[in-house]
Write a structure and sequence with these properties.
Elements: H1 2-10, E1 22-27, E2 30-36, H2 45-53, E3 61-64, H3 78-84, E4 89-92, H4 104-111, E5 115-118, H5 122-128, H6 130-137, E6 142-149, E7 154-156, H7 168-179, E8 183-187, H8 188-194, E9 211-215, H9 226-229, E10 235-239, E11 252-256, H10 263-272, E12 277-282, H11 284-293, E13 298-303, E14 313-314, E15 330-338, E16 341-348
Helix pairs in contact: 3-4
């Protein structure tokens, strides 16, 4: 099952709107087929593994990180395909939260005489597909808040200069986080100040760039900016300027919302469009708004071994905290060093 989870993890950022699933087919202690959810969500991991196994799937045991689907959808049910392939046993991590599937895939397999078991590495599987689960249960994607700061929590100098706070190794790690995200979000202030491309620029992972999302209530994103001209990667501009007639290049789309400050509504809109994993890169106002909203599921904090001082721009603005007990609390779940730079991962304290 750990191998199935590893296969699933490698498809993160590419398989939305579907969950990232891994499937391993084993017979006589040998792997006869394996697969993961493919880009765009089709074909499913089970279908890929069955195709690789061919006739060798008969009598095999399947290890799957999520319950096989049972409904028709855009393709036939994976549970039906596994029955027709002659599998003997199916072990999966946890039920699919989709009401059209939950428990029904397992029931279909059992009715056909297959042995079925679940719960193996369920916690790991749930965390892997946290974004997909949240789209079903809360109607929003998973939110990763990524920030790069100095030792004293500054994201830029007093003059607004932020490149580069961290070194090359840390920036490569940040690009790996991008590659595992469905979309990456910034505010229009960051676009105006830095003109970012927001792409994944790691060798071999250039095709893993997430959808670029800009919160831009007044539609101020410049026509000559990289987000408007380098359109090989889609750009979605979330705006309140519904009556704008401004021409847009191919690959750039306007998404209208009543209020860009209503982050719950913005996240709901992204979930409706299939986004399950959102990486928020800032800047200052966006970081503050997401933290204050209570919609942050994880923080990735890159920190350089430099001090900018009190005249620099802090990563967060006022949160209205009057006592330590009111402050948002997190627990550190991971720590990594990149030379003198560090990366710490935090999740909300429960």
């Amino acid at each position: 099952m750990r191998r199935a989870l590893a296969l699933a993890e490698d498809s993160l950022g590419r398989c939305w709107p579907n969950p990232a699933v891994g499937c391993l087919l084993v017979k006589d202690s040998e792997i006869v087929g394996q697969g993961a959810t493919q880009p765009g969500g089709r074909p499913h991991a089970e279908i890929v593994a069955l195709a690789e196994a061919g006739a060798g799937a008969k009598g095999a045991t399947a290890y799957i990180s999520l319950e096989p689907c049972s409904h028709e959808g855009k393709s036939g049910p994976c549970a039906k395909a596994m029955i027709e392939a002659g599998l003997a046993k199916v072990i999966y991590s946890l039920d699919d939260p989709n009401p059209e599937v939950k428990g029904q895939g397992a029931a279909m397999l059992r009715q056909a005489g297959l042995e079925v078991a679940s719960g193996l590495l369920a916690q790991e599987a749930r965390q892997l597909n946290e974004g997909f689960f949240l789209t079903v249960t809360e109607g929003r994607p998973r939110v990763l808040l990524k920030m790069a700061t100095s030792l004293d929590g500054r994201i830029a100098t007093a003059g607004g200069i932020s490149k580069w706070l961290t070194g090359d190794e840390a920036r490569q790690a940040a690009h790996r986080l991008r590659a595992a995200s469905d979309a990456i979000l910034v505010g229009v202030g960051t676009v105006l100040a830095d003109d970012p491309s927001l792409t994944c620029r790691l060798p071999g992972l250039e095709d893993r760039s997430p959808v670029r999302v800009v919160l831009d209530s007044g539609l101020r994103t410049p026509s000559g900016s990289k987000l408007m001209t380098a359109t090989e990667v889609p750009t979605w501009i979330v705006t309140e300027a519904t009556g704008a007639s401004r021409p847009l290049p191919d690959g750039v789309e306007l998404l209208s919302v009543p209020d860009c400050r209503d982050l719950g509504n913005v996240l709901g809109l992204l979930a409706e469009r299939g986004i399950t994993r959102l990486m928020v890169e800032g800047g200052h106002e966006i970081h503050t708004s997401f933290l204050a909203s209570g919609l942050v599921d994880e923080i990735a904090w890159f920190r350089s071994a430099t001090a900018i001082g009190g005249d620099g721009l802090p990563v967060f603005g006022p949160l209205g905290v009057e006592s330590p007990g009111q402050a948002p609390r997190f627990r550190r779940i991971a720590f990594e060093e990149f030379g003198d730079d560090t990366l710490e991962l935090f999740r909300p304290a429960v």
